[in-house]
Amino acid sequence: MDAVRRAARPSRRGVLRAGGGAALAAVAGTAVSGCGTGADDGVAADGTVTVEMWHGQADTAKKVLEGLVADFERSHPKIRVKLGGGVLADVMLQKVTAALAAGSYPDIAYVFGSDLARVARSPQVVDLTDMVATGPVPWKNYWAASRDAVTLNGRVRAAPAVLDSLAVVCNKKLFREAGLPLPEAGWTWADFVSCARTLTQSGRGRFGTGWPGTGDEDTVWRLWPLIWDLGGDVVDDDGKSIGFAGTGARALQVVADLARDKSVYVDPKPGSEQMYQVFQSGRMGMAVTGPWQLPDIETAGIDYHVAPLPSFSGRPVTISGPDTWTVFDNGEARSEAARTFLTWLARPEQDVRWDIEAGSLPLSRRTEALPAWQDKVARTEGLAVFTQALETARVRPVHPAYPEVSQALGQAIVAVLLGRSTPEKALRACADDANAALLIPR
Questions:
Q1: Superfamily of domain 10-164+322-394
Q2: Strand residues in 249-313 grouped as ranges (E)
Q3: CATH says 167-319+401-438 is which class?
Q4: How far apart are CA 434 and CA 415, in angstroms?
Q5: 327 and 42 Cβ atoms separated by less than 8 Å
Q6: How far is residue 237's CA from residue 346's CA, in Å, rounded to a whole number?
Q7: Where in the chain is the domain with CATH 3.40.190.10?
Q8: pTM for this one?
Q9: What is the pLDDT of residues 280-328, one digit of tens each?
Q10: Would you state the pLDDT for residue 60?
């Protein structure tokens, strides 16, 4: 399988960093329309328009994007796309926040889906509703996760950039040695806990599974499918309180059971790199992860199997963490050129190149149907499971208070993982902090 951008993708889960949202709130109403990265409107004497794109990618993905830009410029000689930004995606929020405060920002930036609500509070963010309504791929042909991740109050505030989903990657050798059948669709979280317990051999340094233990978004987003499956939600319908007060403790009980059995490797560092290293060294039976990790697992020589996420109900449920290309207003010429480029980039013939070479899932069903993607699926063990999961995948809400809700839940998960709290006590503390954040006017 083609190499994937290892340096960027694990950190793409979006470590929450305090202060970014507050800074955005401070500048949301003060940035001056039309101010941008250049001293002019980006239009040269010959009519060529230059678009500045802060891409946030590293290694393979950066090279793929450079190739796509070169092809775009050959077919659109009056538009130049300047790739820059100087930072990876996990610190893009801080850079964009500072740029908005200074009135000198790019035309396009790679923004995590979980950060979009806060970034979109700036009047400099371009509304893309009309662009997707008239694009070459019908908007409804995009996966619901792609659409939902960029829609705020009924308006499309960014273009989908990458798409993924969570499933369980299993080490076949360890399952075979433990005498366990490989899990298939329809298995339960009780099955998962039982498998993890059986797979664990503390004397040999083997773990049943792993969980990020830093309390950041990488820790949190793995719990939302459990909460959704139980009928809960991130925010209640009233918008003033969390939507998992009645379901969160049961979801956290799965975490508590894993911790009780000492069957979970708790990764103490951001990015989950240590957790994945344990799996790739053959010392972990199951890893809840996304398609971005498959190349490293194959490179490590692990004979693996991919199963959908377990559930409580028997219904399929997973989470997708789409990220975005957000457009900023540097004048009509540059905004229109940015829209032209992103429309071109989303076409299936470009999207499939990005997906195959840089490690994303197809943004639309039209891309999924292309022979190139179907060939990729046929050659890659388990990739079809991640793609099929998009049928029922949900996304975190595009809500300005989401970072605070996530931070509160992250602390609760870590407390349970480390045996410092019961699910019920941890959830009460989470609810107190998250509900207070939801009551703050935005």
A1: Periplasmic binding protein-like II (3.40.190.10)
A2: 264-267, 286-289, 304-307
A3: alpha beta
A4: 16
A5: no
A6: 33
A7: 10-164+322-394, 167-319+401-438
A8: 0.87
A9: 999 999 999 999 999 999 999 999 999 999 999 999 999 998 999 999 9
A10: 87
